[in-house]
Amino acid sequence: MNDIFKALADPTRRKILSMLREKDLTAGEIADAFNISKPSISHHLSLLKQANLVQSEKQGQNINYSLNTTVFQDIIQWFFEFRERGDKE
């Protein structure tokens, strides 16, 4: 869970997740939306993958990224459980 919150703490990574919410994108398409270097985008994507927030699939020379919705369901469940524990105290 710590990796997830670390990944979500950065505004660039949150924007990448918002973009992927609309549709799957290649690494190049993601990089084109930012005014930072491609290695920096690659680093952000790597952290998102480590947190299991995104999935990647290589297709030819491109890598396509998509949201891992299962992890988001786990996060929502954690928040509800966290809130329930807080209401009981």
Automatic annotation (TrEMBL):
Taxonomic path: Bacteria, Bacillati, Bacillota, Clostridia, Peptostreptococcales
GO MF annotation list: DNA binding; DNA-binding transcription factor activity
Keywords, alphabetical: DNA-binding, Transcription, Transcription regulation
One Pfam family recorded for the sequence: HTH_5
Residue ranges occupied by any HTH arsR-type domain in the UniProt entry: 1-87
This protein's name: Transcriptional regulator
Keyword Transmembrane: no
InterPro entries: ArsR-like_HTH (IPR011991), HTH_ArsR_DNA-bd_dom (IPR001845), HTH_MetalResp_TranReg (IPR051081), SdpR-like_repress (IPR047796), WH-like_DNA-bd_sf (IPR036388), WH_DNA-bd_sf (IPR036390)
